[in-house]
């Protein structure tokens, strides 16, 4: 049985906080212990360059994040733990993929569209202050994923589009040069825990309301003491609804402990006493890891050695794979003879692709055998309704567009004749399949 590969990237853009621990680090470390799975975890320091131009900050953040994950139990002997910039094959693959991906795909990337919309609203040039790194971000992410032929990439809904783009890149490359890439799947994290910050809003560096994961004990207590609460006095019943303090406690406590604090709220516990309970429970979990973190932070050479060892493991996969890809595209020793000619598969067919976007809606698109976009749907409330639209197109061809005019449109530059031809090819393949 083949081993499933999972890949997770962590961008070094700041100091880890309690929200990162609860929402990402703790569940990811637990997932890394599963049997029958090969896990890849990497520090995405190339990605950090898109948003951060302070070299010292990137270096410090890389150190802090690596130390945090290791202190929280990530075992570099069990997983492939590496730094993106230590794998030179990744930027090389980025270039290969950029040569098979249409620019129009990147024009639709959420981050780029958001920047364009912001500039348009402000009356600026659409690409003002948009660097090429931001525009090309999805291609670099695609290279991260496809370099190791990851089967699953755990992401939130806002990142699903990037996985779909990686699939587009893989499909286009495979069509031109033969089968090399596995089609990755988004492992959507619908139940990612989020913590409120000091002010009650989502804990985020953007709001400056975070509690550093491994703040010294005294600082942790002071920060928890500063969490916003209401003005109810000791003895007055307090509601757990909307209580940031209660939500943070719940993320660390057992069900029994959570019920006990809920009752204490109803009994009118003083906010000072409630905050002490929260501090004690969080510190109980973090104290052993804090000691490990401090030891790692004070020994950056140990972390560097772990990264170097991880790079050796990662490149043991990446280097021969990149040699295979270089040969496939024609970057070869001139003395070699191409005894196995890679031909375009005559059996290649147009393909419908269904996917779900971050808005929760279901979409589909039709690509030609060459990977060109022919048809793009709008959002559907359910996959069943989207499937019914696809079925109508498969049976009626372009004629079905009249009934689907509000939800399905020809892609820019595509012709109705192309759609007819694509539908005909699919129907003929289906008939041939039944006949055989």
Keywords:
436 residues; alpha/beta; Rossmann fold; Tyrosyl-Transfer RNA Synthetase; PH-domain like; 3 domains; four-stranded antiparallel sheet; three-stranded parallel sheet; 15 helices; globular
CATH architecture of the largest domain: 3-Layer(aba) Sandwich
CATH class of the largest domain: Alpha Beta
Helicity level, as a percent range? 40-55%
The CATH superfamily of the largest domain is identified as HUPs
Spatial strand sequence of the major β-sheet? 6-7-8-9
Q: H/E order of the elements?
A: EHEHHEHHHHEHEHHHHHEEEHEH
Number of strands: 9
How many domains, in number, for the residues? 3
Q: What fraction of residues sit in β-strands? A: 5-15%
What does the radius of gyration come to? 26 Å
The structural class is alpha/beta
Shape: globular
Average pLDDT works out at 89
Total helical elements: 15
Low-confidence stretches: 339-347
CATH topology of the largest domain: Rossmann fold
Largest sheet: 4 strands, antiparallel
N- to C-terminal distance:
29 Å
Explained architecture:
It is a single chain. With 436 residues, the protein is of the alpha/beta class. It has 3 domains: 4-194 and 300-329, HUPs (Rossmann fold), CATH 3.40.50.620; 214-297, Tyrosyl-Transfer RNA Synthetase (Orthogonal Bundle); 351-435, PH-domain like (Roll), CATH 2.30.29.80. The chain contains 15 helices and 9 strands. The protein has a 4-stranded antiparallel sheet with strand order 6-7-8-9, sandwiched between helices. Helix 4 crosses helix 7, helix 4 runs parallel beside helix 13 and helix 9 (217-225) runs antiparallel to helix 12 (271-297).
